[in-house]
Please model this.
Amino acid sequence: MAYETLLVETDGPVGIITLNRPEALNALSSKLCSEVCDQLHAWSSDASIRCVIITGAGRAFAAGADIKEMAPQSYMDVYLNDMFAAFETTISAFRKPIIAAVNGFALGGGCELAMLCDFILASETAKFGQPEINLGVMPGIGGTQRLTRLVGKSKSMEMCLTGRMMDAAEAERAGLVSRVLPADKLMEDARKVAQKIAAASLPIAMMTKETVNAAYETTLSQGLRFERRLFHAMFGTEDQKEGMAAFVDKRPAQFKNR
Ligand code: CO8
Model:
């Protein structure tokens, strides 16, 4: 499918979405958001895609929601359109692993998009922030909730109340990003990580994602019970038999995603 605001490619089982409005630092316009949703919907039912990377063209991952598009809107406009609700729910409901490869500014809705992904790989040039307070609003695509869970109340509160940016090193120390990579290696490494994930059994990767995410939604005892039930259920898959047999036979596993 040809898009106005995205570049989309596949590299075997890995789907790569590049947000492509570099002249606007990849600001999340309604068109861009609906195109991301369309592509994720297509890949959710495409069995050949087993992991997705989202990144940005140019010097930003995304510098937030499109301020020029939002500026004139009224309360009724954003309420009745349920602004950003479909974007948030489509990404958070996507069942296959998604990696954010953050190459530059990830601000406001851009930081929230990165946090909607399953984990963040950041280049040394990445900058994270929730500067909405400077615009007379606050984060609205999950920033107050996800940032707080990831970095704790004190840092989240400071960032949301002051709009200060965090550099990549601070974001890694704070637990917002899983790893910081040299800028010229970010996509090469992100592709390697995605290929590694895509080489695993897809249903097992999906159940693993669902179980880690359950840690944010349940008590510890409910989460442990959920983990144990899915762990037991994995013994009903062909891929568990293959993975363990391959270990014993000292050969690479050939998963069938069954
Ligand atoms: N929206 C629209 N255009 C943008 C945005 C944006 N978020 N960010 C940058 N641009 C545009 C600029 O207007 C400029 O365009 P032009 O050349 O036509 O003037 C171009 O991108 C380049 O930007 P700058 O010239 O400003 O580049 P600098 O290097 O000087 O500065 C910054 C880079 C610091 C990133 C700066 O652009 C900036 O502060 N951007 C805005 C960051 C921001 O405030 N983001 C939060 C937006 S609000 C939000 O995300 C809310 C989400 C929740 C909504 C929930 C609803 C339910």
About this structure: The CA atoms of residues 151 and 174 lie 5 Å apart. Strands lie at 6-11, 14-19, 51-56, 60-62, 98-102, 105-107, 119-123, 127-129, 166-167, 179-181. The chain has a mean pLDDT of 97.
